[in-house]
């Protein structure tokens, strides 16, 4: 997708903090705070970590409510409609992104996913689409996603169609997404007690990023709680 559109992120692992310090590319998912501090892997608990500036007032475009997607009046919740409007193509999958973008800096936003259903949260470059499988969140070089699977209570991380199964089983439906644009890091944390780091993507970002959300089936939803 990125090549056809003339841009997008470089292959994952390029342009990371490790490379700029002469350490070479870091394999996906190994950019934890503990490793960057030189202490090696440790239990993924991130108490006291500075996540950046909270993205207060983050919302979605309520005009995007259509056949495969429903956005609440306050623009804070995205879900699948129970019925499809007449003369609207049915899709079992719907996704959207925030109008607000993050072209630089360090920011975070918190979301809460439904107990049932299948959903993804993450970030995307502008002009997120829903038409084909390769456009879905995490299936291309323009999007990054944490995926929550209800049928087996598990997480995966997905970018450019590459999926990584995460070892930590979901214990909380609240997720924090933390962006450090200049460092090229997009991190996901579970807001449990204590807060747990789930995964970090590393990339050289080349366009502004938007908060992105995807839901499957009529029992799935995601709410912005920042």
In CATH terms, the superfamily is SPRY domain
Global morphology:
globular
Alpha carbon gap, first and last residue: 31 Å
Q: Main β-sheet: number of strands, strand sense, barrel status?
A: 8 strands, mixed
CATH class: Mainly Beta
- How many H/I helices? 2
pLDDT < 50 runs, ≥5 residues: 1-45
**Helix percentage range:** under 10%
Short key terms for the protein model shown above:
226 residues, Jelly Rolls, eight-stranded mixed β-sheet, six-stranded antiparallel β-sheet, mainly beta, zinc ion binding, disordered N terminus, globular
Description:
The protein has a single domain, classed as SPRY domain (Jelly Rolls, Sandwich), CATH 2.60.120. It contains 2 helices and 14 strands, in the order H-H-E-E-E-E-E-E-E-E-E-E-E-E-E-E. Strand 8 (154-159) and strand 9 form a beta hairpin. The radius of gyration is 17 Å and the shape is globular. The strands form 2 sheets. Strands 1, 2, 3, 5, 10, 11, 12 and 14 form an 8-stranded mixed sheet that branches. A 6-stranded antiparallel sheet has the order 4-13-6-7-8-9, with no helix packed on it. The protein is mostly beta strands. The longest helix is centred in the N-terminal third of the chain and has 4 residues, at 17-20. This is E3 ubiquitin-protein ligase Midline-1 isoform X1.
């Amino acid at each position: 997708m990125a090549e056809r559109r003339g841009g997008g992120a470089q292959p994952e692992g390029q342009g990371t903090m490790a490379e700029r310090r002469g350490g070479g590319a870091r394999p996906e998912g190994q950019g934890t705070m503990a490793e960057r501090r030189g202490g090696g892997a440790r239990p993924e608990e991130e108490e006291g970590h500075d996540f950046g500036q909270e993205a207060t007032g983050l919302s979605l475009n309520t005009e995007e409510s259509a056949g495969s997607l429903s956005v609440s009046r306050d623009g804070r919740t995205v879900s699948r409609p129970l019925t499809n409007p007449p003369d609207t193509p049915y899709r079992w999958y719907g996704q959207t992104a925030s109008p607000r973008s993050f072209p630089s800096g360090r920011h975070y936003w918190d979301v809460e996913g439904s107990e049932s259903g299948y959903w993804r949260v993450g970030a995307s470059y502008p002009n997120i689409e829903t038409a084909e499988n390769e456009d879905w969140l995490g299936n291309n070089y323009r999007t990054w996603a944490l995926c929550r699977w209800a049928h087996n209570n598990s997480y995966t991380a997905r970018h450019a169609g590459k999926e990584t199964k995460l070892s930590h089983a979901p214990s909380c439906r609240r997720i924090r997404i933390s962006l450090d644009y200049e460092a090229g890091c997009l991190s996901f944390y579970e807001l449990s007690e204590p807060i747990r780091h789930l995964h970090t993507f590393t990339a050289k970002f080349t366009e502004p990023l938007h908060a992105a959300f995807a839901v499957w089936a009529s029992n799935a939803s995601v709410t912005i709680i920042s």
